[in-house]
Amino acid sequence: MNLRVFKKDIEYFVAEFIDDCALFVALNPHKDADEIAQIIDEAVELYNDLKHRANHPEGKKRAYYNGLTKEMFEKLDELCEKLSAVVSKQA
């Protein structure tokens, strides 16, 4: 895996998640905007953490980046579940 591609993946996946959050707020302006803002803040923290850790690898690079990729998707899944919980309260 190329480091440049990995950094672009971080940007793409986190940005797509934040876009989903913003879309929900735009379509439902009066409902749970504070909860969505907290979820977006967590996504931004995840983005910053992943970019920092991608720039400062520890140990064997291949294993490190594979683990970082796995962690990225696990944390994004957790954030998606939080967003789904907020959205399902609205339904």
Overview of the molecule:
- The longest helix has 30 residues, at 61-90.
- The chain contains three helices and no strands.
- Helix 2 packs antiparallel against helix 3 (61-90).
- The protein has 91 residues and is mainly alpha-helical.
- The termini are far apart.
- The model has no long low-confidence stretch (mean pLDDT 92).
Percent of residues in helices: over 70%
Largest sheet: none
Structural class by secondary-structure content: mainly alpha
Spell the H/E element sequence.
HHH
C-alpha termini separation: 41 Å
What would the principal axes of the Cα set say about the shape?
Answer: elongated
The total beta strand count reads: 0
Mean pLDDT: 92
Short characterization:
The chain has three helices and no strands. The chain is mainly α and 91 residues long.
List the helices and strands and how they pair.
Layout: H1 3-27, H2 33-55, H3 61-90
Labels describing this entry:
91 residues, mainly alpha
